[in-house]
Amino acid sequence: MKPCKNRSTLLPDLACYAKVAAMNIPQAGVENLVVKQPSTKRPWLLPGERWYRRIVTMLVALILLTALLISFWQSRSEGDRVLVAHTENLARLIVSQAEHEARIWFLEDNHEGLSSLAAHLQAQEEILEVSIQDELGRPVVRVGHNLPIHEYLLSLPDDMWAVPMVVPVLEHGGPGAQLLGFVRITFDYDRITAQSRPYHRASWQNQLLMLVLAFLSGALIAFAMLRRRRAIPVHIEPPEAS
């Protein structure tokens, strides 16, 4: 076999030598010779046409994102309901204690005791006004204003969360107890919830952060799964002998 020479440089022609070497490789060896090369295409794990896969992927992502938003909104609404329920329980506890003390002063017919009780309650910043009435609903002691309750509530700012609570004062807790009077306390719910709102806001921010992290994690996982490339085997055909 004549050596391969380059006519211009008189150097061995590498392509010619490769061709000659390929002629000496057995057919079985040539068929098993596989070179791994990256594909110029972008293969996907999901079967089907590219646009169809993209539409399905976007729909699934939108459904999951909507589910996360709904779950977050429900959790926030549940937190608001728990906060309101806690505020109402605290207000009812204060009214119950006031009713218990007012019963003592009613039984003793102690007007000064009722006045002291009303003044002590109204001194709390969470309480707007206190009214103690007899069994016919006539005011006995009123602290905070001198207006009827409906006019007083209308005189308050619109953004104030004022809630009046009325509890009857009975002679005793058993059946057939005589009605002694009433105790009405108007609460400012905004001030009652002022101490709990920072913790509620911090919990809401943590839930929002978890929602964002969950969305980013899902997006990264989907990107890693759907954009993973696979090596495509490329077979080298043996050159024909000349």
User: SSE string, helix = H, strand = E?
Assistant: HHEHHEEHEEHHE
CATH domain topology of the domain at 83-196: Beta-Lactamase
CATH class wording of the domain at 83-196: Alpha Beta
Largest sheet: 4 strands, antiparallel
Strand fraction equals: 15-25%
Distance between the amino and carboxyl termini: 12 Å
- Give the CATH H-level superfamily of the domain at 83-196: PAS domain
Name the helicity range.
40-55%
Mean residue pLDDT: 75
Strands, total number = 6
- Reading side by side through the largest sheet, how are the strands ordered? 3-2-5-4
Structural class: alpha+beta
Shape: rod-shaped
Unreliable segments (pLDDT under 50, ≥5 consecutive)?
A: 5-14, 27-38
Radius of gyration: 42 Å
Subcellular location: Cell membrane
Keywords: Cell membrane, Membrane, Transmembrane, Transmembrane helix
GO cellular component, one term: plasma membrane
Pfam families: SMP_2
Which labels suit this protein?
single chain; 242 residues; Beta-Lactamase; 7 helices; 17% strand; rod-shaped; membrane; cell membrane
Overview of the structural elements:
The protein is α+β, with helices and mostly antiparallel strands. Among the domains are: 49-79; 83-196, Beta-Lactamase. Helix content is 52%, strand content 17%. Strand 4 and strand 5 form a beta hairpin. Mean pLDDT is 75; it is low at 5-14 and 27-38.
Produce a short descriptive summary.
It is found in: Cell membrane. The chain has 242 residues and is an alpha+beta fold.
Task: Reconstruct the topology from this structure.
Blueprint (H helix, E strand, L loop, with lengths): L13 H10 L3 H6 L1 E4 L12 H58 L3 H12 L4 E8 L4 E5 L5 H7 L6 E9 L8 E10 H4 L4 H30 L5 E4 L7
Antiparallel strand pairs: 1-6, 2-3, 2-5, 4-5
Helix pairs in contact: 3-4, 3-7
Family: Belongs to the Smp family.
Keywords: Cell membrane, Membrane, Transmembrane, Transmembrane helix
Main location: membrane
